[in-house]
């Protein structure tokens, strides 16, 4: 071989999906069509479902889109929605947690008994209740990750055990009332700024501003790294859409009582957990473990710790959700967390787009899914449908979501993207 002959280094491979950003709107339109054909439906079905639900119940009642009704929906979604956020983390591992309803109940019972009966400072009572919930999740995670007991069995045992503990904590009285004008009472009844419409607009505009800043920062970071970045025109369009949603929401809430505290806390937690999942190494480790345990272990990920920590997060979210439910009903009782609370929370995560098979989902799924479920429940209440029918309809919607997820995965596999 001639010494003058040189070997050129091969050009680095570029994911063709990244080039979509350089093609502008035409590229995104083509990518959207490709995703629809290959079963990558994302949030499209649930958004269309929300629009359809609103249209049907508004047509039947004429009051569904009333500002007071929509405000009530934002109050009611916080408790089960927070539990659903925790379920998203567990589902990303391809597992299930059946104990979260009981954890919500026993955590509320602990907070209620300490604050209302024992005179413990309410903030300290809340912290103890949340810590107890996280400890229960750690126990589940230990038996699952270290001992090897299936998550289904561990959390089923937890469901029974923590339900018994809930009854034990509440004692013969069977209930612990929320302190009037206390911290827990405010979780469901407080409106930020005491209903001042200016506060709602400030929050709405601040949210849009933060979204725009995040998009521009991401573009700058990707450009500096030599990676394809979203064009300014797309950022402007995205910000415009978010702005329209924020303006419509703020205008609607201000026609009622203003900005509900539960909505602020719920949205804040969804944003934070979404950031953790998408922008941190820990979040990527969760997706890696959900995608394949052995591959994750060979990549140097501490699989046991990821599993334990996920169950801790889910239990902590359930404990917080239990406090919101307690605030809403005015007390902690033996029934709190039972009934359809767990099923609605699991259904919310799945309906919102989180896969039951692991490795795919986001915490925004919890928000979208619980909006669908609560909208159905509220709409059926407005037309005075029996609760038994509500359960059947919610079950049918859940089944439809799981079928859609299964079909979507099968379509992606057949197209070589599964």
TrEMBL record:
Q: Which domain of life is it from?
A: Bacteria
Q: Which GO terms describe its molecular function?
A: transmembrane transporter activity
Which terms in the GO cellular component ontology are assigned? plasma membrane
Span-the-membrane segments of this chain are 41-61, 73-93, 100-117, 123-144, 151-170, 190-214, 235-253, 259-277, 304-326, 338-357, 364-383, 389-407
Q: What is its main location?
A: membrane
Compartment(s): Cell membrane
Q: Which InterPro entries match?
A: ABC_transp_permease
In what way does this protein cross or attach to the membrane?
A: Multi-pass membrane protein
Q: Which UniProt keywords apply?
A: Cell inner membrane, Cell membrane, Membrane, Sugar transport, Transmembrane, Transmembrane helix, Transport
> What is any Pfam family matched here?
BPD_transp_2
Q: What does this protein do?
A: Part of the binding-protein-dependent transport system for D-xylose. Probably responsible for the translocation of the substrate across the membrane.
Q: What is this protein called?
A: Xylose transport system permease protein XylH
Species of origin: Kitasatospora gansuensis
Q: Lineage in the entry?
A: Bacteria, Bacillati, Actinomycetota, Actinomycetes, Kitasatosporales
């Amino acid at each position: 071989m001639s010494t003058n002959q040189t070997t050129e280094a091969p050009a680095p491979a570029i994911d063709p999906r990244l080039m979509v950003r350089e093609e502008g709107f035409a590229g995104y339109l083509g990518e959207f069509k490709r995703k629809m054909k290959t079963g990558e439906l994302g949030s499209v079905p649930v958004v269309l479902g929300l629009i359809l639900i609103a249209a049907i119940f508004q047509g039947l009642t004429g009051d569904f889109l009333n500002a007071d009704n929509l405000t009530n929906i934002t109050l009611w979604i916080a408790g089960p929605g927070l539990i659903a956020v925790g379920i998203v983390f567990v589902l990303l591992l391809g597992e299930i947690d059946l104990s979260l309803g009981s954890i919500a109940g026993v955590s509320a019972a602990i907070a209620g008994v300490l604050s209302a009966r024992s005179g413990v400072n309410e903030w300290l009572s809340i912290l103890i209740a949340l810590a107890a919930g996280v400890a229960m999740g750690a126990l589940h995670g230990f038996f699952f990750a270290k001992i090897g007991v299936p998550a289904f069995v561990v959390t089923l045992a937890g469901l029974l055990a923590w339900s018994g503990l809930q009854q034990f904590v509440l004692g013969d009285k069977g209930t612990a009332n929320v302190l009037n004008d206390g911290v827990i009472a405010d979780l469901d009844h407080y409106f930020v700024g005491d209903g001042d419409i200016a506060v709602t607009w400030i929050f709405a505009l601040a949210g849009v501003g933060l979204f725009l800043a995040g998009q521009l920062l991401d573009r700058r970071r990707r450009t500096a790294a030599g990676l394809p970045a979203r064009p300014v025109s797309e950022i402007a369009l995205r910000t415009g859409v978010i702005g329209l949603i924020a303006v419509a929401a703020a205008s609607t809430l201000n026609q009622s009582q203003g900005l509900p505290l539960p909505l602020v806390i719920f949205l804040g937690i969804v944003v934070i957990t979404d950031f953790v999942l998408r922008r941190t190494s820990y979040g990527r480790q969760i997706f890696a473990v959900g995608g394949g345990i052995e591959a994750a272990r060979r990549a140097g990920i501490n699989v046991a710790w990821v599993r334990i920590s996920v169950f801790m997060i889910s239990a902590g979210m359930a404990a917080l959700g239990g406090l919101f439910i307690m605030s809403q009903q005015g007390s902690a009782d033996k029934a709190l967390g039972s009934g359809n609370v767990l099923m609605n929370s699991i259904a919310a995560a799945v309906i919102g787009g989180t896969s039951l098979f692991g490795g795919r989902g986001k915490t925004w799924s919890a928000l979208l899914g619980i909006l669908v479920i609560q909208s159905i429940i509220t709409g059926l209440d407005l037309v005075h449908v029996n609760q038994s029918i509500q359960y059947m309809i919610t079950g049918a919607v859940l089944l439809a979501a799981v079928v859609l997820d299964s079909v979507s995965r099968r379509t992606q596999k057949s197209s070589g993207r599964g």
